[in-house]
Amino acid sequence: MATETPAKSSFSTARRWGIGFNVALGIFAALAVGVMANYLGGRYFQRLYLSTRTRVELSPRTLNLLRSLTNQIQVTLYYDKDDLLYSDITKLLDEYNAHNTHLTVQTVDYYHPGAAEQVKLKYNLVGAATNKNLVIFDSGGAYRIVNGKLLSTDELVQVPAADPAQPEYRHRPVAFNGEVLFSAAILAVTSPKPLKAYFLEGHGELAAGDATGEMGFGKFAAVLQQNHIETEPLSLLTNAVPADCNLLVIAGPRTAVPPVELERIGKYLDEGGRLFVMFDAYSVGHATGLEKILAKWGVGVSDNVVKDPDYTTVGTDVIVGTFAKHPVVNPLLGSRLQLILPRAIGKIDAASQAADAPSVDEIAFAGPRSFLEGTDAATPRHALPLVAAVDKGTVKGVVSERGATRILVAGDALFLGNHQIESGANRDFADFAANWLLDRPALLEGLGPRPVTEYRLALTRPQLQAVQWLLLGALPGGILLMGVGVWFRRHK
């Protein structure tokens, strides 16, 4: 009887090795393609931003700041790696480094005794038990420390509870302030010295030192400080405007300014000073004296409040969405300001102007049917101006003591007060106004807290336990039973 030749295995050793080699080669090729695509995309193509938590895409203002950065900046992340914000902070700093390699980042875990002690000694953090979760920016020995507690704006929200009689609450993040604070820190450590803004006081102005009252101006002062501008109160009764005054702010005076002070303000402007003056409804009916100074510079201040039947929410406010083309308001296209009982601020038409006359622009307007309170109903209505900007420019052959005069006049002061500054784009306007007045065009771009979009499944404790049992028990158990069933079927 002939001997049968055994069938050759379809999966011989050589074939198995060949299949394994092809699989390994395919995996290696896929990884190589992914690495090359990531490298080329990161260096030569536009990045894609898919994060819904912090929206890592940097603002135009930060990008301008990074492009102009030539100083070496060492960022020390002195942070707990288990903190909820840690990954968001590192992603943001990676984005900074991707746009300028002069900025480098090192991470120091404050639980590590050796490295932590070096950081404490270098930045004088010794002896403070609460000195943790810090982001430190250092450039040539000048440093700025950003406290991690300021990086997130939270609100207290109620969560479902098993017992309705005992409500439970948690802190929910609503805004990530990382880019605002990090860019301010970079500006601080790379600038030779901070600029200084003085707030005139003594005539009922809103106080820059009041950070809690609704009528205070503390939040506006904080905007200046984020732009590396120091703030200080000023009385002109006995002294002239200080030589180190880069910006004079007059926020809603309610009483008349004495002639001696008006004379000193006028001299300051003639020397090339920068002025941000805001009027409001509290001074309607009695002049402050500033109106005459502004008239000299081509700006008229009405003695009536503007009403707008079409663009208002409560009758006492005016929603402003119409802007002229001007550096202060160009970034506000598509945004809205909310002013409270504003006064009209417009350009005074002069029959003849000198060659070196200042340029006056009306830059923000109420609606087309706005009118001055108290005017006759038959008076034609039109879009009344609410903000005006004055730019003297430089005169050839003439060198002023302070530079080129710039003035910004607004018909309301309350819209930048503590209560209203968060409305619409009011805070952004304050930022742009200060940087235009100080002639810092690289900072005339939008930058603010990033909204945090949170996707959260609200469950009570019993529901959460049920989900845990489902994920940890039912699903793995079901898969295990299916596997056992398949095994028995194949071995029948």
Which key features would you list for this structure?
single chain, 492 residues, alpha/beta, Rossmann fold, 10 helices, 20 strands
Task: Describe this structure as you would to a colleague.
This protein is of the alpha/beta class and 492 residues long. The chain folds into 2 domains: 60-176, 3-Layer(aba) Sandwich (Glutaredoxin); 193-450, Rossmann fold. Helix content is 30%, strand content 22%. The chain has helices spanning 13-44, 60-67, 86-99, 113-122, 178-190, 218-226, 259-270, 290-296, 426-437, 461-490; strands at residues 73-78, 103-108, 134-139, 142-147, 152-159, 168-176, 195-200, 229-234, 247-251, 274-278, 299-307, 317-320, 322-323, 337-340, 343-347, 359-365, 371-372, 385-391, 406-410, 450-451. It has an 8-stranded mixed sheet with strand order 8-7-9-10-19-18-16-13, covered by helices on one side. The protein has a 4-stranded mixed sheet with strand order 2-1-3-4. The chain has a 3-stranded antiparallel sheet with strand order 5-6-20, with no helix packed on it. Strand 9 (247-251), helix 7 (259-270) and strand 10 form a beta-alpha-beta unit. It is elongated and about 105 Å long. The two termini are 35 Å apart.
Q: What's the CATH first level of the largest domain?
A: Alpha Beta
State which percent range the strand residues make up.
Answer: 15-25%
What is the global morphology?
elongated
Side by side, the strands of the main sheet go: 8-7-9-10-19-18-16-13
Q: What is the CA-atom radius of gyration, in angstroms?
A: 32 Å
Which secondary-structure class do the elements indicate? alpha/beta
Number of domains: 2
Q: Name the CATH superfamily classification of the largest domain.
A: Class I glutamine amidotransferase (GATase) domain
β-strand number? 20
Question: Mean pLDDT across all residues, rounded?
Answer: 81
The CATH architecture term of the largest domain is: 3-Layer(aba) Sandwich
Report the sheet with the most strands, covering strand number, pairing sense and barrel closure: 8 strands, mixed
Helix content: 25-40%
N-to-C SSE series? HHEHEHEEEEHEHEEHEHEEEEEEEEEHEH
Q: Distance between the terminal alpha carbons, to the nearest Å? A: 35 Å
